[in-house]
Amino acid sequence: MWSEEQKSIIKSEHLIKQVIAGAGSGKTATMVGLLEEREKQNSILPENTLVVTFTKKATHEFKERCQKKGLSSRYHISTFHAFCYYALKHFDNSKNWSKFKLLSQSKKWKITKELLNSIQFEIGGVPFPILFKNDAKHFKEISLEKYHTFSRSFQWWKDKNNYFEFDDLIFDFLKFLDSESSNTVKNRWKALIIDEFQDTDEVQLQIIKKMNFKSITVVGDDWQAIYGFRGATPKPFLEFPNHFPNVVQFFLSTNYRSNKSIIESSLLPLKKNKEKITKQVKTFRTEKGIFQVERIKDTQEDPMKIWNEWYKKDSSSIILTRSNFRKHEWIENGVPALQVMTIHSAKGLEFRTVLLDLVLGWSEDIEDIDEAEERRILYVGLSRAKDNLVLLIPDLTKPKRLADRMSEDFSIRNRFRNRTLRWARLW
């Protein structure tokens, strides 16, 4: 049932584990297997175990898997933010958390507009999402002093009106852990299993350290760290042994999802990334699949022509895009909304056939772009495909354009393949 790699993790009695799991390597199944083993050995009680997932969907899936295995219902399984809210609401006496509610995005921008009204001409027409992007970098460049004034006013408004944002939960919980009343929380949860650890941030790492867990298992893949815009960074995962010197590292290196040609192709964009954990990806499936590069000359007609051809072959085909704007363009041209997704929303999912759009929708803001992360985003998109992967790239390349720089490996490979085919026909 279990591979040797999975067994080594499940059976290991080491208290601090770092599981470096490649795409499609069965990491969720392994984590559930670890809980199952602990219940058999009666080593760490379910009520003392906290399982942290990255999304609500992943939380639901994890709970379902535990239920199917007949495991205890006493595990606390939730996202990081949901756990912080639960702990603050039940154990933090400094604030009446039951009165507080989550601030919606529309309400946030409405209040932001009111608070920034006096400096609207200094800000100009910069949209709020851009103004506050990358830790409000653009706002701080306009005026650091006015940014801090706004931050204080905004926090005061939230406290007065009983609102919180997700980041508030993290910072408030971190502060709470320095209080005496936090001992109840620390004594209750002795073991932590945390998924997608490559998408954590420095503050969440501090929380993990302050909780004083007896047992910690972090699972992640630094190659799939794609949430820099939220403040996440692969650093805590890359540097985990520095923070927990007693850690033992394990690898889940077998890809059970994709066929060999897709696995080999998906690894190409990562070659230029220097800060990464080196791992050997093993293929499990022996069936032949399709990896195909399509050069797009006419950006209006060619993509839809290719989509229609693949839809006839596989009606469950999915298009993956870099941006919501590009996603909506596909939908406006007639692709069903449920069959177009951004790469970020497809993370953790898998599809039989993927058409990945490298033509439009990728950032051209060369100064602010993190090219290493963009290559990881491309890797995530490529590695969603199980059987068929079709990469759409521009026919005419522009060296300065980000999408073209990332598709050059595929372009060279495709040109060489075409030449080989021509020579074969001549021979």
UniProtKB/TrEMBL annotation:
InterPro entries: DExx_box_DNA_helicase_dom_sf (IPR013986), DNA_helicase_UvrD-like_C (IPR014017), DNA_helicase_UvrD/REP (IPR000212), P-loop_NTPase (IPR027417), UvrD-like_ATP-bd (IPR014016). ATP binds at residues 21-28. Keywords: ATP-binding, DNA-binding, Helicase, Hydrolase, Isomerase, Nucleotide-binding. GO terms for biological process: recombinational repair. Residues 1-259 form the UvrD-like helicase ATP-binding domain. Its EC number is 5.6.2.4. One of its GO terms (molecular function) is DNA binding. It catalyses: Couples ATP hydrolysis with the unwinding of duplex DNA by translocating in the 3'-5' direction; ATP + H2O = ADP + phosphate + H(+). It comes from the Bacteria. It holds the Pfam family UvrD_C. One of its GO terms (cellular component) is cytosol. Belongs to the helicase family. UvrD subfamily. This is DNA 3'-5' helicase. It comes from Leptospira soteropolitanensis.
